[in-house]
Every structure is written in C-alpha cells, then in structure tokens.
Amino acid sequence: LILSVFQLDTLNLYANDREKLSKAAELNNLGIQKAVSRDLNDAEVDLLKALVYSNEHPDIRKNLGKVHHEQGIQLLDEPGRELESIRYFQKALEIEPEHPVYKKSYSAALYKMAQKKADSGSVEEALDYYERAALMNPDDINVWVTAADYAWSVHSKMAAQMFYERARAINPLNRNVKVLQKKLTDFTQDESGLNMQSEHFRLIGAPERIGGVDVLEVLKDLEYALNQVLYSLNIEFNKKISVIFYPPDAFHYQFDIPDYVVGLYDGKVRLPYPDTSHTLSRMYPVVKHELTHAVLHAIAGRSLPKWLDEGLAQKIEGREIGYDQEELLYNYELSLPMPDITQIDQHIRSRNRWAYLKAHSFTAFLVQEQGMYEIIRCIRDQQGLTFDGCLESLSGLNMKEFETLWRQKLGSRVRKL
C-alpha cells in the first residue's frame, strides 16, 4: 500500500489558510500511518477530513482511493460482505476510473457476487453480475467462459451466445471456448418441437399437444391468465414471456424440486404438462403466480426484493391468508426473534413457510395502504432509488416504520377474531 506523504508547500495551490494546510498535511500523514497498520476505517476518516482542509487535493484523493481499494479487498475475504466490498471498489474507481488494479478487483467482487446469486437461484441477477464482471475485466477469458457456461446451464441462449462470442474473440483455440461452442451447437433440447407464439407468449419446444391439450388452446389460456395478472397489477405490458412445458417427472427431476412445486420462474416460466392431477384450469393459480414473477422482473427498474416478488405473486394468484395463519404469524412475531422484512429474502429462497407468509401479509398491507399504483411505480423506479427508498420518498415512512404499522394492524385483527 503506497501512499503519498505531504509537506506544507505541496498543498499551497489548494488552500491559502496556513492553519488548514497544516491540518490537512497532519491528517493525511496520520491516515497513511493507520492505513499501513491496516486500521483502514480510521484511515478513511482521516483522509476525508484532510480532503476538506486541503480543498480536495488530488493526491490526497488518490490516497483515499487506495484506502477504499484496500477496504474492498479486506471485505471481499469475509463471507456475506460482497456488496460492501463492491461499494468500496466503486468508490476507488470514482477517484481513478481507469486504474487497472481497481478494475480487476471490482471485477473479482462482481464475479463472486454472480456466483452467490447463481447458487441462490437468482438467475437474472447472476447473469447481470457475470456480465458486469466480464465487462470490467474484458481481457479475462475465464470470466467470459464462466458467464457463458452459466447462461447455457439456465437455458438463456442469447446471453450464452453473447458471452461465448466475447470469449472466442480473445482466443478461439482455447479449450473451454471449444467446449462452449459444442454446447451451444447442441443447445436444442428446449427448442426441439414447435416454437409457437401469441401476443405475449413464446412457447419453446412445444409439442402439438401439451398434456392432451392443443397448443393453440394453451396459448389462449396463458393470454387469459396474463390479462388477469395485468388487471390486478394495473399495468400495460407489451413484452413476450418465454414458457417451457415439461413432462411432470422430468420437470421435478431436472430442477431438483419437491413434487408439490408445480411452477418455476428463472427468466423463463417453466411448468409441468397438465395431467390428471394438475389440469390446466386447476393450475391457473400457479400459472398466474409464475406470470406475476415474469411481469415484475420485466418491468423492474433495478433488483427486485425477493419478499416483494413473492408477496405480490401470492396476492395476484388469489391466495388467501386465513385467521389461523394470521394468528400463527403474529405469535411468531411476538415470541421469536424474527428478521425484519428486508432481511427475510434468504429464508424465502430456502422455502421457509413463515417467510412466505410474512411476505404475503406484509405486501398485502403495503398495497392496501399505498395502492398498487404506487407499489408498481417504485418497482419501476428509474431514479436510482431502491424500492424501499422510493416508497419512503413517496410516503415519508421507512420500511421499519411500515413494518411496525403492519404488526400493529395484524395484532388488532387477531385480537378481534
């Protein structure tokens, strides 16, 4: 960690108050000492103060950038702190946007985050992080290859092809690139059969009859279900949703999911063929649930909170929350150390019953309090705000305050009943 030590005369161009100059030099050099001893957070504080006293001296800014980079490296080695690491690398790059070491470190953090999202089943977020990691370090063929291989594994052919082309441009003779080429050439499993389309749907690899139902009738049923979803969300929608049907046994085996799960969204809507136990009409709630996921991810201006995604999908499919469930949820909230709503996403990914119930109940409360229009507005937000930040700017309440109100209303209903 090499930083610049300053004397007073090096700062003269940036401030004319000798007392401030002296303080800037003192704080800068103190920050350097702390950085060398790996006391990085205190070093950051001293350097920020030095910047104020020195009127933003560029070399002190560079020192701060180096400290931000070291903070990012330190956090990257700690499990679960990838996002914090990414923020520090971003700060370092704001100071020196073309610094090659900072860019490689930032790429490594994005790559690690991509792997984490992939492991949790967040396909779209994983693909986004892989792409950002590769673009930040575009000459690293391994990042492009890994991104392409992941995209292929989740049946995202367009992304897989794009990542493959970038890897091939670096070295067409690379062994992994050749393996990818063969995979993409053979990428026909989902695309064998008919590729039927309607206004909003693309059926991939569909046979002429799906579970005994004519494929055109299936498209009509999907359009009908989507219209109900769009009406409930109060939005217009002009994109196409890819849908793949699987034989029931193959569906559960391929995705390693329990028999009671009869729908999946991972960038495409995946459903088992309708059969005697799951007729298409009986599957409408599941179809509406998965279509809600597809629509929300298509319109989201940024990453969509998992609790909100699942909460709205449950609400739109028409699932009711009974008194027994509300009582159970309220007692859980009172007696156990339950995570806040913004902390339950991991519990939802592990199919925790309580987390799904809380997401449903809390989302229904938000819709009742703020209206579906405002909820969708914040999901679509293009101003750089998170959903939480957008909702707070509209309502004046943060998520913790909303959760307190929800808990009070939940308790009031339980006591009345």
SSE layout:
Layout: H1 18-36, H2 40-53, H3 58-76, H4 82-95, H5 100-120, H6 123-136, H7 141-153, H8 157-170, H9 175-185, E1 194-197, E2 201-206, E3 209-210, E4 213-214, H10 215-233, E5 241-246, H11 248-255, E6 264-265, E7 269-272, H12 284-299, H13 306-317, H14 323-335, H15 345-349, H16 353-370, H17 372-379, H18 387-395, H19 399-416
Parallel strand pairs: 2-5, 5-7
Antiparallel strand pairs: 1-2, 3-4, 6-7
Main beta sheet: 5 strands, mixed
Order of helices and strands: HHHHHHHHHEEEEHEHEEHHHHHHHH
- The portion of residues assigned to helices is 55-70%
Based on Cα principal axes, name the global outline. Answer: globular
Number of helices: 19
Distance between termini? 64 Å
- The number of domains is 4
Q: Give the total of beta strands.
A: 7
Strand order of the largest sheet: 1-2-5-7-6
- Average of per-residue pLDDT values: 82
| Computed structural class | alpha/beta
Low-confidence sequence ranges:
188-194
Radius of gyration: 26 Å
Classify the beta-strand content into a percent band.
5-15%
What tags apply to this protein structure?
417 residues, alpha/beta, Serine Threonine Protein Phosphatase 5, Tetratricopeptide repeat, Zincin-like, 4 domains, five-stranded mixed β-sheet, two-stranded antiparallel ribbon, 19 helices, 6% strand
Q: What does this 3D model show about the protein?
A:
The protein is α/β, with parallel strands linked by helices and 417 residues long. It has four domains: 8-97, Alpha Horseshoe (Serine Threonine Protein Phosphatase 5, Tetratricopeptide repeat), CATH 1.25.40; 107-185, Serine Threonine Protein Phosphatase 5, Tetratricopeptide repeat (Alpha Horseshoe); 194-296, Zincin-like (2-Layer Sandwich), CATH 3.30.2010; 306-416, no CATH class. Helices cover 64% and strands 6% of the residues. The chain is built from 19 helices and seven strands. It has helices at residues 18-36, 40-53, 58-76, 82-95, 100-120, 123-136, 141-153, 157-170, 175-185, 215-233, 248-255, 284-299, 306-317, 323-335, 345-349, 353-370, 372-379, 387-395, 399-416; strands spanning 194-197, 201-206, 209-210, 213-214, 241-246, 264-265, 269-272. Strands 1-2-5-7-6 form a five-stranded mixed β-sheet. It is globular and about 85 Å long. Mean pLDDT is 82; it is low at 188-194.
